[in-house]
Amino acid sequence: MIYILPFILVISVSISSENTVKVFGYTLFPKVISLDAYKSIFANPGQILQGYKITIMFTVMTTILSTIVMTLVAYPMSRRNYKLRNLLTFYVFFTMLFSGGLVPSYIINSKILHLDNTIWIYIIPGLVSAWNVILIRTFFQGLPESLVESAKLDGASELRTYFQIIMPLSTPVVATVAFMTVVAKWNDWNTALIYIRDQNLYSLQYLLQKILRETEFVKKMAAETGMLSNVDTPTETMKFALAMVAAGPVLVVFPFFQKYFAEGLTIGAIKG
Amino acid sequence: MESLIKHEVEKLNVQLQHERINKRRDIKYYTLKENFELSLLALPAVILLFIFNYMPMIGSIVAFKRFRPNLGIFGSGWVGFKNFEFFFTSQDAWRVARNTVLYSFDFMIVNLVGAVLIAILLYNIRNKIAVKAYNTVMILPKFLSMVLIAFIVYAVLNPTAGVMNQILHLFGFNGTINWYAEPKWWPLILTITNLWMGIGMNSIIYYAALVGMDTALLEAAQIDGATKWQQTRYVSIPHIVPIMTITTILAFGSIFSGDFGLFYQTTMDVGLLYPTTDIINTYVFRGLQNGNLEISAAVGLFQSVVGLIMILIVNGIVRKISPENSMF
């Protein structure tokens, strides 16, 4: 119950009329049902749609690129005969133990690489997650070594072995990692918080944060619809309606993939 | 009889020898060309890690400099430990360090108790479908962004319309509490929020351990007339104590860093609440926003170094107690 109620509450507020909320406060069941908040959102969905577009774009790109890059590096890490294996593993693993911190990263990303205020800032810096690489490597190590050996005897190159032998067998781990990347990217608000100033590049979650904190921002969005005067804007209910529009679809979809999430927990082991 | 044993032992020895030979043959390294090919596969990730992880590490020398944007990290002049001095002599240092560590402790204990409790409750539910349903629902917050969680907290705590004040009214409490202006409540609020977010995930590991337990033990206890509580107290709990120990020790490794999202989003970064909600991570972020780059970098570097030392110590301890659970 403690888990369901908050969601009902949010939905309920989003369909309440602004006046009852002003008088009675948020209630678990709407006293007067009103779709005003949704109406004013859908009258001019530009900003939200833009948020969706940007978020979907960088989520898809990050997930694809990072899965490729991470499986590529995990493969040599899993090959026992690879000479630089220990060095490489340490190189990856060390990034989990120690980090330069927020400020040096900021200076490098924005002052040197000039990634700030571009969509690339969402994508490139986080492509390699050491934790996920180790996860994939551990899975690869569980595959029978003889497979690789026989492919090599047949004259396959390493790249080919990776693509035709290893990858087809690795759907479980790839699905898990890809799913975790999707969730992480979809929920990304801090990148925009630090690096993005251009409103058209806001990620969906950052947009939500603005909506929650800045009533002015909500009013501005409503004003753009031209439907309502500034005074009538159902700001409180609109906040929650916006939250629903921005997050609702995902809430419905994610639980179905939960399985992969739990799997990610159980196959992780760094040693070896 | 004796010869039979001897024979077996000999067979075992031969087998062992074979295995040893096999192992040695396996570790025969690849040729230069093969190594090169494999290195090529690793290259993209190696470059990315270098740029986005190792360069910032080098860049953290900015903590010892007076940063001038036009001169860059390397061009700026050295100031030694001045930036660290500035932080440690400021009144913020004690506050953020205390908050960070106390919250870590608090979350560690509350999460442990909560997760174990939930795991035991789930274990005592016989209906498998119900267990699955509870699990699914409790994991849900893990898919939510911190922003949405902040929304929910806001719906509960909004001073004029929020649910919490309405409930207080029901119990005859007059007046409203302006939650976002009263720091004293936030340790409690953050603890509950954090527990709510994490409990589903945290309890899974204990639940899995309980399911893996030999039920014969419980049955034996039952036959001896043990009550449900006694069974839990003397059979189930001892069974998961080792895992509890390990997770707790590991949690010590990250005691000096907090969840930026939790402390930044749910508090909505309200300045009034800083006395009880400002942690190192939020402090560093604010420094970045206000342009105090080098102070922030110094604090961040300090945090990273302490974090590294903690992890090394913790891992050393775990390796002593139970090698299979150590990280490296």
Architecture overview:
The complex is a heterodimer of chains A (272) and B (328). Chain A is mainly alpha-helical and 272 residues long. Chain A has 2 domains: 5-46 and 192-257, no CATH class; 55-178 and 260-266, MetI-like (MetI-like fold). Helices cover 70% and strands 0% of the residues of chain A. Chain A contains 16 helices and no strands. In chain A, helix 9 (145-153) packs antiparallel against helix 10 (158-169). The longest helix of chain A is centred in the N-terminal third of the chain and has 33 residues, at 46-78. Chain B has 15 helices and 2 strands. The mean pLDDT of chain B is 83. Chains A and B meet through helix 1, helix 2, helix 4, helix 5 and helix 6 of A and helix 2, helix 6, helix 7, helix 8 and helix 9 of B.
In short:
The complex is a heterodimer of chains A (272) and B (328). Chain A is mainly alpha-helical.
Biggest interface between chains = A-B, 90 and 89 residues
Quickly give the structural class of chain A. Answer: mainly alpha
The span between the termini of chain A is 42 Å
Strand fraction of chain A equals under 5%
CATH topology of the largest domain in chain A: MetI-like fold
Radius of gyration of chain A, CA atoms, in whole angstroms = 23 Å
- CATH level-two architecture of the largest domain in chain A: Orthogonal Bundle
What is the N-to-C succession of helices and strands of chain B?
HHEHEHHHHHHHHHHHH
Relevant CATH superfamily of the largest domain in chain B: MetI-like
The overall average pLDDT of chain A, rounded, is 79
- Tell the overall outline of chain A: elongated
CATH homology superfamily of the largest domain in chain A: MetI-like
Count of discrete structural domains of chain A: 2
Main beta sheet strand tally, sense and closure of chain A: none
Query: What are the segments of chain B in which pLDDT stays under 50 over at least 5 consecutive residues?
Result: none
Distance between the termini of chain B: 45 Å
**Range of helix content of chain B:** over 70%
SS summary, helix count of chain B: 15
**Which percent bin holds the helix content of chain A?**
over 70%
